[in-house]
């Protein structure tokens, strides 16, 4: 039996005084002041046991991690046509890259780059009565925690500075791959990214992917087949142009966000959420990746 508490405490100890911690995302001004010294880990086994260390109980902006949750909400509601509007190939490009979108006639490479997430946002804006509230309630239900909320300042900060996302949404609209107004889709997208969670809440939110889709939702659960496919997309596309590196170093499906969070999972075994706000050049948490590399190396628990 692995002493998980000892493993994550050792990783925290190894990394907590690291000098080279990457750079906090400052292209979203409201995120620029987050203290790069934060480092939290929360591990949740499928049998319900949990292990935590460091700043596991502080809220942070989940940013692109939300893209997996919008996909998980949309897929059971729109299973037939979704994959006609967004592909499932890794892009090998940064999360906000646009030239492939033009080359490929407005069909984003996958749902985890920004353009693909905007198509999923558009689907939810079309399907939901009160899109932002309904999605927030979905997340609250998945985690079974009604306190989860948007950070409205972060959403507003992105609205004021998100020129790349405006460009992506306009391009999608020009190619006929957005049904709704560009501003409505972006408003939804900026809010989904501005949800705040702790490592503990995030490890809970992703249990469904480790558990063949099953979680505490009463309706709209993922089927085992849908959960399998989302895991495949996380593995191949969850870290943008560093997806290969993450598979090589860590060997788990996962997703990062520019708030410095990473959540990863081993089907049938566990989910693990790590938060360290400093990012590497590819926009993924620098120490978060190192922590997870140490975790799968020390425990020998990975999909490979
Ligand atoms: N990789 C990320 O977390 C990017 C999300 C961010 N909201 C953006 O659209 O730029």
As residue ranges, the low-confidence spans are none
What's the helical proportion of residues?
40-55%
CA radius of gyration: 18 Å
**What are the distinct ligands in this entry?**
glutamine
Q: What is the CATH T-level topology?
A: Beta-lactamase
- What would you call the structural class? alpha+beta
Query: If you average the pLDDT, what whole number results?
Result: 97
Major β-sheet annotation: 5 strands, antiparallel
The assigned CATH architecture is 3-Layer(aba) Sandwich
Q: Characterize the overall form.
A: globular
Indicate the proportion of strand residues: 5-15%
Structural domains: how many: 1
In the CATH hierarchy, what is the superfamily?
A: DD-peptidase/beta-lactamase superfamily
Per DSSP, the total helix count is 14
N- to C-terminal distance: 20 Å
Strand line-up in the sheet with most strands? 3-2-9-8-7
Series of H and E elements: HEEEEHHHHHEHHHEHHHHEEEEH
Can you identify the CATH class?
Alpha Beta
Number of strands: 10
